[in-house]
Specification:
This protein is α/β, with parallel strands linked by helices. The protein is 44% helix and 13% strand. α1 runs parallel beside α2. Bound molecules: nicotinamide-adenine-dinucleotide.
Length: 297
């Protein structure tokens, strides 16, 4: 039986690990060839490391293990020229582009020493990086003439009211966290905007909003404490975080795995969702039904 991504070529940012790698592997399993890019170097203001070139090579190995081709590239989503060059290399080898996963993101909490410009650093990657990804990809989708699907990765932070101004420590997280939330919120309107403009060309644009997902981002320094402000930073453990994260959700589950998000993104990437565009879909373990006015309210 043909896979759900047979004949497609998927461009995935932040593909070196985590959710981006899960998208690459699942979509390859379903028949897609993959153009996988990652920054492969650290970002000064971000307190946890980014994926490495070895991580990206491992993604390629896993895609090839699924029997598909994978072109990897080192590119920073903040640099549209780097994205365009990596994409051109991939298309030259794999053929016309059909799918885009604008997934790369950072959550620069800088708990010990927050700086006002952390806000900008988050926005540069989490908002401008997505716009750059779409801007680099759309000319190729239009040139191919067969429509296409763009899936943007948001966050429950996009849906929680007053995330950027609340004094609740679970949702404020300093300038870096506020820049993250503001970026993700802004992406909802951007998705609706681009969905309208691209619809006449048959190109769909949708955004997904994962809750806590068991990746480097979630397990980076600071996140556990955001959820457990009652504990000292040095003593808070993943088990402490687990309790608070279960309470954050309606379903009795502490967090998602990357493969869970990949299933939703696969649906939106595939023709199974061909009548859907401009949608904003939580995959949030019931977080938003439990806390429609924000955590604890
Ligand atoms: N993990 C969570 O709890 C969670 C929850 C909601 C949303 N998200 C979103 O999911 C997406 C994927 O994150 P993840 O959870 O897999 O975390 P992750 O840190 O494991 O993966 C992020 C990837 O993006 C790459 N990246 C970061 N900045 C980049 C840049 N400037 N250019 C190119 N690549 C860059 C990193 O190297 C890394 O490989 C992000 O957009 C994130 O905001 C994560």
């Amino acid at each position: 039986m043909a896979g759900r991504m047979q004949g497609k070529v998927s461009f995935i940012t932040g593909a070196g690990r985590g959710q981006g790698r899960a998208h690459a592997v699942l979509q390859a399993r379903e028949g897609a060839d993959i153009i996988a890019i990652d920054i492969c170097e650290d970002i000064d203001s971000n307190p946890y490391p980014m994926a490495s070139w070895d991580d990206l090579a491992e993604t390629r190995r896993l895609v090839e293990q699924e029997g598909r081709r994978c072109v990897v590239g080192k590119a920073d989503v903040r640099d549209r020229g780097q994205l365009a060059a990596a994409l051109a290399d991939g298309i030259a080898e794999l053929g016309p582009l059909t799918n885009v996963m604008a997934n790369a993101g950072i959550l620069p909490l800088a708990m010990g020493d927050p700086q006002p410009m952390d806000f900008h650093d988050a926005v540069d990657v989490d908002l401008i990086g997505v716009l750059n990804t779409v801007a680099a990809a759309v000319p190729h989708l239009l040139a191919a003439g067969g429509g296409g699907s763009i899936v943007i990765t948001g966050s429950t932070a996009a849906l929680i009211p007053n995330t950027t101004s609340s004094t609740d420590p679970r949702v404020i997280m300093g300038p870096g966290g506020a820049g993250y939330s503001w970026s993700k919120q802004t992406l909802v309107g951007y998705t609706r905007e681009m969905a309208q403009h691209l619809a006449p060309s048959g190109i769909r644009v949708n955004i997904v909003h994962p809750t806590n997902c068991n990746t480097h981002l979630m397990n980076a320094e600071g996140i556990y404490q955001v959820f457990r402000p009652d504990l000292e930073a040095e003593e808070v453990t993943k088990d402490d975080f687990r309790l608070a994260s279960v309470a954050y959700h309606a379903l009795p589950t502490p967090w998602l795995e990357s493969e869970d998000v990949a299933e939703l993104v696969l649906f939106l990437a595939s023709d199974a969702s061909k009548h859907m565009t401009g949608t904003s879909i939580p995959i949030d373990l019931g977080c938003m039904v439990k806390w429609p006015n924000g955590p604890g309210q």
